[in-house]
Amino acid sequence: MNAGRSDTGRRLRIALSKGRIFDETLPLFDAAGIRPSEDPEKSRKLILPGSEADVEFLIVRASDVPTYVQHGGADLGVVGKDVLMEHGAEGVLEPLDLKIARCRLMVAGFPETDLSTSRRFRVATKYTDCARRHFARMGRQVEIIKLYGSMELAPLVGLSELIVDVVDTGSTLKANGLVPLEHISHISSRLIVNRASMKIRHARISEIVDRIADAVNAVNAVRPSPDGS
Ligand code: PRT
Ligand code: MG
What we know:
By secondary structure, the chain is an alpha/beta fold. It is 34% helix and 27% strand.
Protein backbone atom coordinates (compact mmCIF):
# COMPACT_ATOMS: atom_id res chain seq x y z
CA MET A 1 0.00 0.00 0.00
CA ASN A 2 1.33 3.36 -0.97
CA ALA A 3 0.09 6.04 1.42
CA GLY A 4 1.68 9.02 -0.33
CA ARG A 5 0.11 8.22 -3.64
CA SER A 6 -3.26 7.03 -2.54
CA ASP A 7 -3.89 10.26 -0.59
CA THR A 8 -3.77 12.65 -3.51
CA GLY A 9 -2.80 10.62 -6.55
CA ARG A 10 0.62 12.10 -6.98
CA ARG A 11 4.06 11.46 -5.59
CA LEU A 12 5.39 13.10 -2.47
CA ARG A 13 7.69 15.90 -3.64
CA ILE A 14 10.87 16.76 -1.77
CA ALA A 15 12.74 19.95 -2.73
CA LEU A 16 16.51 19.79 -2.45
CA SER A 17 19.30 22.06 -3.62
CA LYS A 18 22.53 20.78 -5.12
CA GLY A 19 25.83 21.25 -3.34
CA ARG A 20 26.67 20.82 0.32
CA ILE A 21 23.09 20.39 1.56
CA PHE A 22 22.41 17.66 -0.98
CA ASP A 23 25.59 15.76 -0.12
CA GLU A 24 24.93 15.85 3.61
CA THR A 25 21.20 15.13 3.28
CA LEU A 26 21.63 11.93 1.26
CA PRO A 27 22.82 9.68 4.12
CA LEU A 28 19.92 10.87 6.30
CA PHE A 29 17.35 10.21 3.59
CA ASP A 30 19.00 6.85 2.94
CA ALA A 31 18.20 5.91 6.52
CA ALA A 32 14.55 6.76 5.80
CA GLY A 33 14.68 4.48 2.76
CA ILE A 34 14.37 7.25 0.20
CA ARG A 35 16.99 8.51 -2.20
CA PRO A 36 17.03 10.02 -5.68
CA SER A 37 17.59 7.49 -8.44
CA GLU A 38 20.12 9.78 -10.16
CA ASP A 39 22.90 12.11 -9.09
CA PRO A 40 21.63 15.67 -9.72
CA GLU A 41 25.22 16.83 -10.37
CA LYS A 42 25.30 14.48 -13.38
CA SER A 43 21.72 14.90 -14.55
CA ARG A 44 20.00 17.90 -16.13
CA LYS A 45 16.61 16.69 -14.97
CA LEU A 46 14.85 18.89 -12.44
CA ILE A 47 12.58 16.10 -11.20
CA LEU A 48 14.36 12.94 -10.13
CA PRO A 49 12.34 9.83 -9.30
CA GLY A 50 12.96 8.40 -5.84
CA SER A 51 13.99 4.88 -4.96
CA GLU A 52 10.49 4.42 -3.54
CA ALA A 53 7.67 4.83 -6.05
CA ASP A 54 5.71 7.35 -4.00
CA VAL A 55 8.53 9.92 -3.73
CA GLU A 56 10.25 12.28 -6.16
CA PHE A 57 12.92 14.94 -5.72
CA LEU A 58 12.78 18.48 -7.10
CA ILE A 59 16.17 20.11 -7.69
CA VAL A 60 15.82 23.82 -6.95
CA ARG A 61 17.98 26.78 -6.04
CA ALA A 62 18.72 26.81 -2.27
CA SER A 63 16.95 30.14 -1.81
CA ASP A 64 13.87 28.84 -3.65
CA VAL A 65 13.28 25.81 -1.39
CA PRO A 66 11.04 27.69 1.12
CA THR A 67 8.99 29.17 -1.74
CA TYR A 68 8.29 25.74 -3.26
CA VAL A 69 7.29 24.29 0.11
CA GLN A 70 5.26 27.31 1.19
CA HIS A 71 3.14 27.29 -1.96
CA GLY A 72 2.78 23.51 -2.17
CA GLY A 73 5.01 23.01 -5.23
CA ALA A 74 6.85 20.64 -2.92
CA ASP A 75 5.56 18.81 0.16
CA LEU A 76 8.91 18.72 1.94
CA GLY A 77 12.24 20.48 1.58
CA VAL A 78 15.70 20.77 3.07
CA VAL A 79 17.04 24.27 3.57
CA GLY A 80 19.57 26.23 5.59
CA LYS A 81 18.18 28.13 8.59
CA ASP A 82 19.84 31.24 7.10
CA VAL A 83 17.68 30.96 3.99
CA LEU A 84 14.62 30.21 6.11
CA MET A 85 15.16 33.23 8.37
CA GLU A 86 15.69 35.51 5.41
CA HIS A 87 12.69 34.17 3.50
CA GLY A 88 10.24 34.34 6.40
CA ALA A 89 8.64 31.06 5.23
CA GLU A 90 5.29 31.88 6.76
CA GLY A 91 3.05 28.87 7.28
CA VAL A 92 5.84 26.38 6.69
CA LEU A 93 6.37 23.69 9.34
CA GLU A 94 9.91 23.05 10.55
CA PRO A 95 9.74 19.69 12.32
CA LEU A 96 13.42 18.77 12.28
CA ASP A 97 16.89 20.22 12.72
CA LEU A 98 19.06 17.99 10.52
CA LYS A 99 22.25 19.34 12.17
CA ILE A 100 24.07 19.37 8.84
CA ALA A 101 25.77 22.12 6.80
CA ARG A 102 26.45 23.93 10.05
CA CYS A 103 27.82 27.44 9.99
CA ARG A 104 27.32 30.82 11.68
CA LEU A 105 25.67 33.96 10.37
CA MET A 106 28.19 36.70 11.16
CA VAL A 107 28.94 40.37 10.74
CA ALA A 108 32.45 40.63 9.30
CA GLY A 109 34.81 43.37 8.23
CA PHE A 110 38.38 44.62 8.55
CA PRO A 111 40.06 43.80 11.91
CA GLU A 112 40.42 47.45 12.93
CA THR A 113 36.68 48.14 12.57
CA ASP A 114 35.19 49.67 15.72
CA LEU A 115 31.51 48.73 15.79
CA SER A 116 30.87 50.86 18.88
CA THR A 117 31.30 54.16 17.03
CA SER A 118 28.16 56.01 15.98
CA ARG A 119 29.09 56.11 12.29
CA ARG A 120 26.54 54.78 9.82
CA PHE A 121 28.17 51.64 8.39
CA ARG A 122 27.36 50.30 4.96
CA VAL A 123 26.61 46.56 5.08
CA ALA A 124 26.76 44.40 1.95
CA THR A 125 24.78 41.16 2.16
CA LYS A 126 22.33 38.81 0.54
CA TYR A 127 20.69 38.50 3.98
CA THR A 128 19.15 41.99 3.94
CA ASP A 129 16.24 41.26 6.31
CA CYS A 130 18.40 39.35 8.81
CA ALA A 131 20.98 42.16 8.73
CA ARG A 132 18.33 44.86 9.16
CA ARG A 133 16.82 43.03 12.16
CA HIS A 134 20.24 42.45 13.72
CA PHE A 135 21.42 46.05 13.48
CA ALA A 136 18.02 47.37 14.66
CA ARG A 137 18.30 45.07 17.70
CA MET A 138 21.76 46.47 18.38
CA GLY A 139 20.41 50.01 18.00
CA ARG A 140 22.77 50.80 15.12
CA GLN A 141 21.99 52.83 12.02
CA VAL A 142 23.25 51.09 8.86
CA GLU A 143 22.81 51.29 5.13
CA ILE A 144 22.09 47.84 3.68
CA ILE A 145 23.43 47.04 0.21
CA LYS A 146 21.90 43.99 -1.47
CA LEU A 147 24.29 41.52 -3.14
CA TYR A 148 23.65 38.02 -4.47
CA GLY A 149 27.05 36.46 -3.64
CA SER A 150 30.79 36.96 -3.02
CA MET A 151 30.02 39.42 -0.23
CA GLU A 152 33.67 39.29 0.88
CA LEU A 153 34.59 41.43 -2.12
CA ALA A 154 32.52 44.44 -1.07
CA PRO A 155 34.82 45.83 1.68
CA LEU A 156 37.89 45.23 -0.50
CA VAL A 157 36.64 47.68 -3.12
CA GLY A 158 35.01 50.18 -0.76
CA LEU A 159 31.43 49.20 -1.54
CA SER A 160 30.81 48.65 2.18
CA GLU A 161 32.63 48.56 5.51
CA LEU A 162 30.81 45.45 6.73
CA ILE A 163 29.29 42.29 5.35
CA VAL A 164 26.78 39.84 6.76
CA ASP A 165 27.40 36.29 5.55
CA VAL A 166 27.58 32.70 6.73
CA VAL A 167 31.00 31.58 7.92
CA ASP A 168 32.18 28.02 8.33
CA THR A 169 35.96 27.62 8.67
CA GLY A 170 36.60 31.36 8.34
CA SER A 171 39.20 30.77 5.64
CA THR A 172 37.33 32.79 3.00
CA LEU A 173 37.26 35.81 5.31
CA LYS A 174 40.92 35.31 6.20
CA ALA A 175 42.01 34.96 2.57
CA ASN A 176 40.45 38.37 1.94
CA GLY A 177 41.89 40.12 5.00
CA LEU A 178 38.57 40.13 6.88
CA VAL A 179 37.58 38.88 10.33
CA PRO A 180 34.32 37.91 12.02
CA LEU A 181 33.19 40.83 14.21
CA GLU A 182 29.81 39.84 15.58
CA HIS A 183 27.83 36.62 15.84
CA ILE A 184 24.21 36.75 14.67
CA SER A 185 23.01 33.14 14.71
CA HIS A 186 24.00 29.48 14.63
CA ILE A 187 22.86 27.91 11.36
CA SER A 188 22.09 24.34 10.34
CA SER A 189 19.80 22.79 7.74
CA ARG A 190 16.15 22.11 8.51
CA LEU A 191 13.54 19.75 7.15
CA ILE A 192 10.49 21.82 6.27
CA VAL A 193 6.99 20.66 5.42
CA ASN A 194 4.01 22.27 3.73
CA ARG A 195 1.24 22.68 6.29
CA ALA A 196 -1.56 21.28 4.11
CA SER A 197 0.59 18.33 2.99
CA MET A 198 1.25 17.48 6.64
CA LYS A 199 -2.51 17.22 7.19
CA ILE A 200 -3.38 15.36 4.00
CA ARG A 201 -0.41 12.95 4.00
CA HIS A 202 0.16 12.84 7.71
CA ALA A 203 0.99 9.14 8.09
CA ARG A 204 3.58 9.00 5.31
CA ILE A 205 5.24 12.33 6.13
CA SER A 206 5.39 11.50 9.85
CA GLU A 207 7.00 8.18 9.04
CA ILE A 208 9.68 9.92 6.94
CA VAL A 209 10.26 12.63 9.58
CA ASP A 210 10.58 10.01 12.35
CA ARG A 211 13.04 7.90 10.39
CA ILE A 212 15.19 10.90 9.48
CA ALA A 213 15.06 12.06 13.12
CA ASP A 214 16.39 8.65 14.21
CA ALA A 215 19.20 8.96 11.65
CA VAL A 216 20.08 12.47 12.89
CA ASN A 217 20.16 11.22 16.48
CA ALA A 218 22.32 8.23 15.54
CA VAL A 219 24.86 10.44 13.75
CA ASN A 220 25.01 12.96 16.61
CA ALA A 221 25.24 10.30 19.32
CA VAL A 222 28.48 9.17 17.69
CA ARG A 223 29.72 12.66 16.84
CA PRO A 224 28.51 15.31 19.31
CA SER A 225 28.08 18.75 17.76
CA PRO A 226 30.72 21.43 18.37
CA ASP A 227 28.18 23.73 20.05
CA GLY A 228 26.83 20.95 22.23
CA SER A 229 23.32 20.88 20.68
O1 PRT B 1 24.54 29.33 -4.76
P1 PRT B 1 23.05 29.44 -4.52
O2 PRT B 1 22.56 30.85 -4.41
O3 PRT B 1 22.23 28.57 -5.41
O4 PRT B 1 22.78 28.84 -3.09
P2 PRT B 1 23.69 28.88 -1.84
O5 PRT B 1 24.96 29.57 -2.10
O6 PRT B 1 22.84 29.38 -0.70
O7 PRT B 1 23.94 27.31 -1.66
P3 PRT B 1 25.14 26.58 -0.97
O8 PRT B 1 25.03 25.16 -1.42
O9 PRT B 1 26.41 27.33 -1.18
O10 PRT B 1 24.78 26.68 0.56
C1 PRT B 1 23.63 26.06 1.04
C2 PRT B 1 23.56 26.25 2.55
O11 PRT B 1 24.71 25.67 3.17
C3 PRT B 1 23.52 27.66 3.06
O12 PRT B 1 22.22 28.21 2.98
C4 PRT B 1 23.99 27.48 4.51
O13 PRT B 1 22.88 27.14 5.32
C5 PRT B 1 24.90 26.25 4.43
N1 PRT B 1 26.33 26.56 4.57
C6 PRT B 1 27.16 25.98 5.48
C7 PRT B 1 27.06 27.44 3.87
C8 PRT B 1 28.38 27.40 4.37
N2 PRT B 1 28.41 26.47 5.37
C9 PRT B 1 29.40 28.25 3.79
N3 PRT B 1 30.53 28.23 4.26
N4 PRT B 1 26.75 28.26 2.83
C10 PRT B 1 27.71 29.02 2.28
N5 PRT B 1 29.01 29.05 2.72
C11 PRT B 1 29.92 29.98 1.99
C12 PRT B 1 29.89 31.40 2.55
O14 PRT B 1 28.88 32.15 1.92
C13 PRT B 1 31.28 31.94 2.21
O15 PRT B 1 31.36 32.41 0.89
O16 PRT B 1 31.26 29.56 2.09
C14 PRT B 1 32.12 30.69 2.33
C15 PRT B 1 32.68 30.66 3.72
O17 PRT B 1 33.19 29.39 4.03
P4 PRT B 1 34.48 29.30 4.98
O18 PRT B 1 34.62 27.84 5.28
O19 PRT B 1 35.63 29.84 4.21
O20 PRT B 1 34.19 30.10 6.23
MG1 MG C 1 26.56 29.05 -3.39
